[in-house]
Write a structure and sequence with these properties.
Blueprint: H1 2-25, H2 34-38, H3 42-45, H4 47-70, H5 72-92, H6 96-106, H7 112-123, H8 126-157, H9 160-181, H10 195-218, H11 223-245, H12 253-256, H13 259-287, H14 300-328, H15 330-350, H16 355-383, H17 389-416, E1 419-422, E2 425-428, H18 430-453, H19 458-483
Antiparallel strand pairs: 1-2
Helix pairs in contact: 1-7, 1-8, 1-9, 4-5, 4-6, 4-10, 4-17, 5-6, 5-7, 5-9, 7-8, 7-17, 8-14, 8-16, 10-11, 10-17, 13-14, 13-15, 13-16, 13-17, 13-18, 14-15, 14-16, 15-16, 15-18, 16-17, 17-18
Length: 484
């Protein structure tokens, strides 16, 4: 029985990562109908997405640090439990206030991936860690690709509460499997939890992400947005000083400032931006009315099916990315992934009218995301002590989240300034979409440059030297055999 649990630990953790991504996307098909279903305004309903974004961004580094200190399995089960409770509350109510609070609880699931990656490093032998981490990283895209069409089908053919009952059952299943199959990691970093640092980081991130996500709605020059951005700068500056002085800081800034840690964090932010542009713009483009001259007028279900090949590709190619990292180093894998994302956007710019080309370009972007997302945690794992892996990967996931939030705001700003009237309503032009693709592709190229700037891992250099020595040794042997 123990051997069975050990074999199932990796797929169980991957299932938890897929659930996390599914929980983040299932509400998207509901957004147009939620004002009618709940009696709330459209701006209030948008908090169903914003609340999850904010709580996930705040809780990911906090729960990662708690996992390093108090036990990664324990905190993982707590995150999965909060996710499941949030889904249950959504299934039981139509009150928008309770729904928003429940969605905030579901944001705790964002910590599942960094906690799981840290557990895999602690529990698996080195030869299995790379492929397992690559699979775990890919669950973000896999879950997002599966969640959208699944939720759309349920919403289209059943009561909307059924969708949350289904996710509650899946969450309970994931929680039970994790409790049974995942062992507690013995690697910990004891000490006193930095409550002041956690509160300061939470306040700064809320101001930042709230300002970025609501800028288009409230107005970028409105007093509320400007006040939030100023407060963000002030709070995070004070938090930085507090972290430098703390004996046991929430985030080890000295470690985070090292190039082998700082550059992967920067690359994570840029890759998050580039990745999110693909799914965000594609979903809007294919659903645009046919009267625009470029739109396909697809339903939300058909849109999800268009994005599905990308999710399948991420699942299939995660072992390939792990092999490239093992042979050439994760920074090379990251650079390749970012370059592939940029190439995918080149295809999107070349043709965004034919459905098959749209699917091919979107899938190529997903392929690059697979390589990039699988390499990022490996870079972090190699650069930080074993006792800080969950918190460091939590910060890396946070940077990806910030990148996605900034991408959402940037794409919205571009599309708002490039519209035309179709049937009396403003609709983004094809030129606006192409500009959004160009912007995301440029960011992907910057991410590629950041990846190449990461200092080489001594282990990679040693491995490369060993391979060259083996080739030199093998060459005379081969010549001797030919002569014989």
């Amino acid at each position: 029985m123990a051997a069975l649990r050990d074999r199932l630990a990796v797929p169980v953790l991957a299932f938890g990562g897929i659930l996390m991504a599914v929980m983040q996307t299932v509400v998207v098909p509901l957004l147009p109908d939620l004002p009618r279903l709940t009696g709330a305004s459209a701006s209030t309903v948008s908090w169903m997405v914003t609340a999850t974004l904010l709580s996930g961004a705040v809780l990911t580094p906090v729960l990662g640090r708690a996992g390093d200190m108090y036990g990664k399995r324990r905190v993982l089960l707590m995150a999965l439990g909060l996710m499941t409770v949030g889904s249950l509350l959504c299934a039981l109510t139509s009150d928008i206030r309770v729904l928003i609070a429940a969605r905030a609880l579901q944001g705790a699931a964002a910590a599942v991936v960094p906690l799981s990656i840290s557990i895999l490093r602690d529990e698996l032998p080195p030869e299995r860690t790379g492929s397992a981490v690559a699979l775990m990283s890919s669950t973000v895209g896999i879950g997002a690709a599966l969640g959208l069409p699944l939720a759309a089908l349920i919403v289209q053919y059943a009561n909307w509460h059924v969708m949350f009952w289904a996710t509650t059952a899946l969450g309970a299943c994931g929680l039970t499997l994790a409790w049974w199959a995942v062992r507690e990691s013995p690697v910990r970093e004891p000490g006193r939890f930095d409550t002041t640092g956690a509160l300061g980081l939470a306040a700064g991130l809320v101001c930042l992400l709230l300002g970025v996500s609501q800028g288009g709605t409230w107005g970028w020059t409105s007093p509320r947005i400007l006040g939030l951005l100023v407060a963000c700068v002030v709070i995070l500056a004070l938090w930085w000083v507090q972290q430098r002085r703390a004996e046991r800081p929430l985030v080890d800034l000295k470690l985070a400032a090292r190039p082998r840690v700082a550059l992967p964090h920067i690359a994570a932010l840029l890759t998050g931006f580039a990745f999110y542009g693909n799914s965000l713009v594609t979903a809007q483009l294919v659903q645009a009315p046919e009267a625009t001259g470029y739109g396909l007028g697809l339903s939300i279900v058909a849109t999800g099916v268009c994005l599905l090949p990308g999710g399948v590709t991420m699942l299939l190619l995660s072992p390939v990315s792990a092999r490239i990292s093992a042979a050439r180093g994760p920074r090379v894998t990251l650079a390749i992934g970012a370059a592939i994302i940029a190439f995918g956007y080149v295809i999107r710019i070349a043709d965004s009218r034919d459905l098959w080309v749209i699917i091919v370009g979107s899938t190529i972007c997903a392929t690059g995301t697979t390589f990039a997302y699988s390499a990022l945690p490996t870079l972090i794992l190699r650069a930080v002590p074993a006792g800080q892996t969950a918190s460091a990967n939590g910060v890396n996931v946070l940077m990806r989240t910030i990148g996605q939030a900034v991408c959402s705001a940037a794409v919205a700003a571009v599309l708002v300034h490039h519209t035309s009237l179709i049937g009396g309503a403003p609709v983004p032009t094809l030129h606006g979409y192409l500009l959004a693709f160009a912007m995301a592709g440029t960011v992907a190229l910057v991410a590629c440059a950041a990846a190449l700037a990461i200092p080489a891992d001594p282990a990679d250099a040693a491995s490369s030297g060993t391979r060259r020595a083996r080739r030199r040794t093998a060459a005379p042997r081969d010549e001797a055999l030919e002569g014989a």
